[in-house]
Design brief:
The protein is of the alpha+beta class and 559 residues long. Helices cover 34% and strands 11% of the residues.
Length: 559
């Protein structure tokens, strides 16, 4: 309850300000009548290399791929806050953890620790004459933890806590959104049966819910600090309030991108995903037609829930040595590295064409063809060439196949855990669609005479090239929207040295719903000198779908 009371106090001081807008990529592509509709069933025959076969609309391999690519990273989990992934892991020996309180007692019941003091000290409050206490701990053995992805510590009833709810109470309970003390007690009671020491979540920064502070932890220091300021006593100096809030968010931003939060090591060979359509088929119709922002675990069936919970419990006790040994994160990141920047460049080249200028059209088409060729350089076979007077792309199917299987060939025969089979399928589905689009674009460029090495033509048909580049632009946009990789979400133009790129982060600018009443003050209770109504901050217009924007790092602070 102390955490919630402090959070209430901090939020009282926060006001949402104007921000400088920046565009986000990728966003929804405008409706395109030429986009096509998937008509095939589930893609079970990956040896069928047909350029016309679109991904099944219920396929989730690309979603598993991107959620794994985003694990323990603040930026993508702030953007797509409704987590679907549960991963066993460890907090290594020698890791420092932080806990702030107004009492000089090491917690004797389950409680929270921060990965950085910038996060813990926001809970360090008290009257100036009393100060506050700041506990630094160090792990004396690896702590066994379970990580919930997404913005899983954000107190929202729109899906951030779904995976915790279904594992703890067997269903999603929005009325318990703010019942954190009850939640941590229930999670630890369940986790104790499987040797779990704690749970890792993300709020403004990453945190751990520790079940027993006397097991695997030693006290490094327990300092009596001066309270930074009494944020709950009006009037509040805006810059001081924003400074504390900003620095907490700043600490979270250190893990914005890969490798993310380094204090936790995940075991991907035992990952459990609610995007696994074999494990939880009841969520397939619940997701149909919805954007990823709105995906939830809310409508899971009782049968699927039991199966998923059993799988989590099995993965918690399965030794890592029983896995294949494949470094799945390295494999996924290799694929992202190979295609992310080239797709982004092609989108720029095709999106900036002056369509009334034939020279600009031909120039952009030629540059795009170069990027397509270099993307496929290691797959373009010597004997691959189009047939004379034929517009068929069948001659490029071996290239499509080579590209699509280049990261999965010979892996299928390995001894994989059920989780690894899911990751294998995610990589295979994702690379197949990338290679279908990229190979198809390149081959159509060859037919048009744009390739300098294969079937080059001196006299290009500007009408045909114009039509082709329009199609290419649609192909790239649809592929990038389908992949939706977080590496493309950034501030454009880049922020100045006094700014940082920011996504709306709970709780600043979010509707807070029904918060529980503060606990009554007492000798060991939280400091509450000014009870009264809670002034909710203004709601950010993009809180449901955060858009990157530049905010100031120095006064005057903005969010």
């Amino acid at each position: 309850m102390y955490r919630l009371t402090v959070l209430r106090i901090v939020l009282t001081a926060l006001l949402c300000s104007e921000w400088s807008l920046a565009t986000q990529v990728p966003l929804n592509v405008a409706d395109d009548p030429g986009a096509g509709v998937a008509t095939s069933g589930p893609d079970t025959d990956l040896m069928h290399w047909n350029f016309e076969d679109l991904p099944n609309p219920n396929a989730t391999g690309h979603l598993v791929f991107e959620t794994v690519h985003s694990l323990l990273q603040h930026w993508p989990n702030t953007r797509m806050r409704n987590g679907h992934t549960v991963v066993p892991g460890t907090i290594p020996i020698g890791t420092y953890l932080y806990h702030a309180t107004n009492r000089h007692h090491v917690p004797t019941t389950p409680d929270w620790v921060a990965m950085h003091p910038e996060e813990s000290t926001i809970f360090c409050m008290g009257p100036p004459e009393n100060g506050c206490w700041h506990l630094t701990l160090v792990t004396t053995r690896p702590l066994k933890v379970l990580y919930f992805d997404g913005n899983s510590a954000a107190k929202l009833d729109s899906g951030t806590m779904d995976t915790q709810d279904v594992l703890t109470w067997g269903k999603v309970l929005p009325e318990k959104t703010w019942m954190e003390q009850e939640r941590i007690a229930a999670l630890c009671e369940w986790g104790n049966q499987h040797g779990v020491d704690g749970f890792v979540r993300m709020e403004m920064d990453f945190e751990a819910m520790i079940c027993n502070f006397t097991s695997g932890l030693d006290v490094v220091s327990f300092l009596h600090l001066a309270s930074p300021d009494a944020l709950d006593v009006p009037p509040v100096t805006g810059s001081r309030a924003f400074l504390r809030a900003f620095e907490s968010l700043h600490g979270g931003s250190w893990s914005n991108r890969f490798p993310g939060e380094l204090h936790v090591q995940l075991d991907l060979s035992n990952i459990v995903s609610f995007y696994d359509t074999d494990l939880v088929p009841s969520l397939v119709p619940a997701r149909f037609g919805k954007e990823r922002w709105d995906h939830r675990v809310l409508n899971i069936s009782d049968e699927d829930l039991l199966r998923a919970k059993t799988r989590v419990e099995e993965e918690l006790v399965r030794p890592r040595e029983l896995s294949s040994g494949v470094d799945w994160m390295a494999l996924i990141r290799t694929i992202v590295h190979r295609y992310a920047s080239r797709l982004e460049l092609m989108r720029y080249l095709l999106g900036s064409i002056a369509w009334g200028n034939p020279g600009a059209i031909l120039g952009a088409a030629g540059k795009t063809q170069v990027q397509l060729r270099v993307s496929l350089m290691s797959h373009i076979l010597l004997n691959a060439a189009p047939l004379e007077r034929s517009n068929s792309l069948d001659w490029a199917r071996p290239i499509f196949e080579s590209c699509a299987t280049s990261h999965t060939a010979r892996l299928e025969g390995l001894n994989m855990t059920p989780s690894e089979k899911l990751l294998f399928q995610a990589v295979r589905e994702t690379t197949k669609e990338i290679c279908r689009i990229v190979t198809g674009m390149w081959a159509s460029g060859v037919l048009a005479g744009l390739d300098d090495y294969l079937n080059p033509k001196k006299d290009l048909n500007i009408t045909a090239i114009t039509h082709l580049t329009h199609k290419w632009e649609g192909d790239v946009n649809r592929l990038m929207q389908w992949l939706d990789w977080n590496v493309w979400v950034k501030c454009r133009p880049e922020c100045s040295i006094e700014e940082t790129c920011y996504l709306s982060t709970w709780p600043v600018g979010f509707p807070l719903g029904e918060m529980p009443p503060p606990s009554p003050p007492g000798e060991d209770g939280p400091y509450m000198p000014s009870p009264g109504p809670f002034p909710f901050p203004d709601t950010a217009p993009d809180w449901r779908r955060p858009q990157p924007r530049c905010v100031r790092r120095v006064e005057p602070y903005t969010f």
